[in-house]
Design a protein that fits this description.
Strand order of the largest sheet: 1-2
Shape: globular
Number of strands: 2
Number of helices: 11
Radius of gyration: 19 Å
Distance between the termini: 43 Å
Structural class: mainly alpha
Order of helices and strands: HHHHEEHHHHHHH
Length: about 290
């Protein structure tokens, strides 16, 4: 039973990471109207920017992480404006295919700049705490704490600020929002900065708790898609629930089957859930 509880605890940590990795993806989907497959590569941009400043240049983790998040937000905005904006009128299918190409370009650039191999941040070894036989490290607790703070801050931003309300209006009905005087271009840019910044934060967390390679983003996009589909591409709260469900399911499955099947479990959960609730946890069908 203690081993099972350990897997549940690890699954909560995984779920918190997936929440942050998916919120930005779902936000882009709702506002921009397409699945941005290149979103996962932004996690790599943040993780390796942080690694380069921390392990390469000797910066402390916090300033290196802040720069990594800012760089990722700017990269995401530039991709949105330079790559996606000119072809927006061609529809979501063309944008989706273009995002796959953008993902390959980012991945190729990372390979060329970083090279192959495994890398880690230059930070102290994790301290492990034990509660009733269940172990959790200080870095895992930071992941959970940051996920809680980030999601709460995002919820307040979307409901209490002018630009946040504009983003919500755009996600609900872009045409109606534009007719009500909302600056569509400004809102789109804010969305790209916000969603990419969240991807940057997820990338920093990934760098803290895992070893890094330039192929790591490919594994993340499959899990991000699983969470987004289960959530119904809808509200923030449905993404939180879906992230925890997928994270716990993947890690608890190791109790019975080999760890290599974790991605399979993620999509098995999605398939079973959608058979019962086709619109996803949010109860809203994707537009």
């Amino acid at each position: 039973m203690t081993l099972f509880a350990q897997y549940v605890t690890t699954g909560i940590v995984t779920g918190c990471f997936l929440i942050l990795a998916t919120i930005g993806f779902s936000l882009t989907r709702r506002v921009e109207g397409f699945l941005n497959i290149a979103h996962a590569e932004l996690l790599s941009v943040s993780a390796f920017t942080t690694w380069g400043l921390n392990a390469g240049a000797g910066w402390p983790l916090l300033p290196a992480a802040l720069v990594g998040i800012i760089v990722t937000a700017v990269v995401g905005l530039l991709i949105g404006r330079i790559v996606y904006d000119p072809i927006r009128g061609h529809g979501p299918a063309v944008l989706l295919i273009t995002s796959v190409g953008a993902a390959y370009v980012i991945h190729g650039a990372m390979d060329a700049i970083i090279g192959t191999g495994i890398r880690t941040l230059d930070i102290p070894l994790a301290t492990t705490y034990k509660f009733h036989g269940v172990r959790i490290t200080d870095y895992q607790m930071i992941v959970v704490g940051l996920a809680a703070v980030a999601t709460l801050s995002l919820a307040l931003f979307l409901t209490k600020t002018k630009i946040g309300l504009a983003i919500r209006a755009m996600s609900a009905n872009p045409s109606l929002a534009a007719s009500r005087g909302i600056d569509v271009k400004q809102t789109s840019r804010a969305t790209w900065l916000l969603s990419s910044g969240l991807a940057g934060l997820a990338g920093v967390m990934l760098a803290m708790v895992a070893t890094l390679s330039t192929d790591i983003a490919f594994n993340q996009i499959l899990q991000i898609l699983a969470v987004a589909i289960l959530a119904g591409l809808g509200s923030l709260y449905s993404v939180i629930a879906a992230g925890l469900i997928v994270g716990i399911a993947m890690d608890v499955s190791v109790y019975w089957i080999p760890a290599g099947y974790r991605p399979l479990i993620a999509f098995a959960v999605v398939i079973i859930a959608l058979l019962v609730r086709p619109e996803g946890l949010s109860g809203k069908k994707a537009r």
